[in-house]
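Appendix B. Chain record.
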Amino acid sequence: MKRFKKRIPNRESIENNKYLRFILKRVGHKPYLWEFNRREVVMATWIGVFWAMVPMPFQMIPAVIMSVVFRANILVAIAWVWLSNPFTMLPIFYFEYYIGCHLMGIKFIDSLVSANWQDILIHWQLVLIPLLLGSLVVGVLSSLILASSVWLIYRWRGIN
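Structure tokens predicted for this chain:
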């Protein structure tokens, strides 16, 4: 935990960054958003992992908003959102689409696996609903599993 705390930006580095300074103006006076207590980190894990699984741009924005609303650590939530990045996005969305098709009982369009973005955009109406359903299910389940794991690690290590 000490190694992790050394590597993440602290309040002073955010104050000195002209692009991130606006965050402190809005929520800087709420210390629980920057603390690494068990409750804040577990809630931030749930929020960050859930939004990482949602197929939408700018996933960090709803993660920060939910962190403020649910009193979770903002930095941890943003770090978990980065789970979905350009390298992991396609495998994650493919898995979510597969799960959505299975849950809806519709035929999985396997030809889209090797398709390019143009083919996917042409068939978006066939892909969108199963993808959204799959992302909701995978997001909730994976966030529950990882948040529970973080809670257990905190408890096992004796950290409050």
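Further analysis of this model is presented in Appendix C.
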